Amino acid sequence: MPTAPGRAARPDVLRPARALARWSLRHGLPAAHLRRAARRGDPVARLLRDPAVRADPRAVHEQVRSRGPLADSALGPVTAAHAVAAEVLRSDRFGVGFDWSRLPRPARRLLAFGDDPAVTGVAEPPSMLVVDPPDHTRYRRLVSGAFTPRAVAAAEDRVRRTADRLLDRLEAEARRGGDVDLVAAYAAPLPVLVIADLLAVPADRVDDFLHWGAAAAATLDPGLPPRRFLAGDRALRELHGFLEAHFERLRRDPGDDLVSSLVAARDADALTDRELHAIAMLLLGAGFETTVNLLGNAVVLLDAHRDQWEGLAAEPERWPDAVEEVLRHDSPVQITGRTARVETELAGRRLQPGDRVTVLLGAANRDPAVFADPDRFDVTRADARAHLAFSAGPHYCVGAGLARLEGVVGLRALTERFPGLRVAGRPERRDLVTLRGVEHLPVRLR
Ligand code: HEM
After folding, report:
1. Residue 275 carries which DSSP code?
2. CB of residue 398 inside a 6 A radius of ligand 1
3. Per residue in 143-185, pLDDT tens?
4. 15-444 homologous superfamily
C-alpha cells in the first residue's frame, strides 16, 4: 500500500497479537475440545485429530453411520447418510453462515480479519462458501457466467494444450530416467495453469499460487496448530497483496476474463473491495486445491486397479464415468457443514436456529443405502454420479464442470502418453482434514 509523502508507514504492532487471538478462537479452543473428545473415543474427533484414521476413514464412517442418520458427536449433530446430507445441503431451512451475532463484538472482529478491508479468509465472510442469500445470490450471479457448460466446453482445447505441454516436460524427464513426483510435475500445475488462464493472472506466478493455495487450504481445517495457522495467515496476506496489484492492472487494461468483469462490478458499486478480494481469492484457491486431489487420487486408484486402467485405455469414452467414480470413492472435499436457520426437524430430531450440522461428504458418498458395495472402486458403476462430492443446493460447486473437464482431459492425456505409468513408492497423503488427496506421488513413467 503506498504511503503519503513524508509519512513513514506505521508498522501494525498489534497484528501478531490479533492473529494469535484469532487462532485461539478459531483453532486453539476447538482443538482442546476435540483432543478431549478423541480421547473419549468420539469418532468425529478421531477423524479430525488423527491422520492415520483419515488415511482410511471407513471404520470411523461406519461408526457414525451405525449411530443413526443424525448422530451426536463432539461437533454436534453429524451425518454420514446420503439422504440426510442431500436434504441439509439443499434445504433453505439451513444456511452456511455461522451465527456471528452469537459472538461478542470483539471476537467477531477478530475472526473477520480485524479491520483490514482487503484481507479475507477462505472460511470467513464474505467468502462465498460461508455467505447466505441474498449476498450469496449476488456473488453467484457475477461468477456463474464464466462456468456455463458452453464456457467450459470452450476451455477444452486450452486444458488439452496445457496438459500436453506438461506431459512434454514429463517425457523429457522420463528419458533422463528415475522416478517423478506426479503431483509436483502434473496434478498440481495443470489446474493452477488452467485457473490462472481463466482469471488472467500471469502463469509465471504458479509456484506462488501453489504456496498460497496450500496454506489457505489448511485454514479450512479445525484445530490447526498456531504455526500452520500463522503460515496460512501470512500466505493469505501475500495473496491479497498480489490480487490488489492484479485488480489495478485489469482496471487499466481490462480483458474479457472473469476478474476484469468482477473489477468492473466493483467499480459500479455492485461489490465492495472486501467482496471482490474474497471472490477472486476463492476462485483462485478452489480452482486448483481440489482438482489436484481429483487427479492424484485417480492415479492412485487406477494404479491399484490395473484392469480398470486397461479398460479405460481400450474404451476412452468411459473416462467421464471413471472421473465420477473417483470423486465418489475418494472425495476431494470430505467435510462441510450447515447451520439451522429456523427451528426444524432433521432425521427425526429437533434442531434450534444456530445449531450446526456436520456433513461427512466422503461418508455419504459411500452410503450402502445408495451405492451397492460402496467401498469397491468400479469405474463402470452406473450411479456414481449420484455422489455429493461437489455438494448440492445453492453452494453446489461453481467449478464442477471445469473440474470434470480437467479430470477427463488430464487423466486421459496422461494415461495415453504413459500407458505403462506405475506408482513407484508409497503415496504421501496431504495432512489435511477437509480435503483428501496426495501431497507426493512417486511414479515411474515407463
Ligand atoms: C474436483 C474438483 C472440485 C471439487 C471436489 C469441488 C468441491 C466443492 C464443494 C464440495 C463445494 C461446496 C462446499 C459446501 O457446500 O460447503 C465447492 C464450492 C465451490 N467451488 Fe468447487 N470443487 C472442485 C473444483 C472447483 C473448481 C475447478 C472451481 C473453479 C473456480 C471451483 C470453485 C468453487 C467455488 C467458487 C465454490 C463456492 C460455491 C458457493 O459457495 O456457492 N471448484 N466445491
Report:
1. H
2. yes
3. 999 999 999 999 999 999 999 999 999 999 888 888 999 999 9
4. Cytochrome P450 (1.10.630.10)
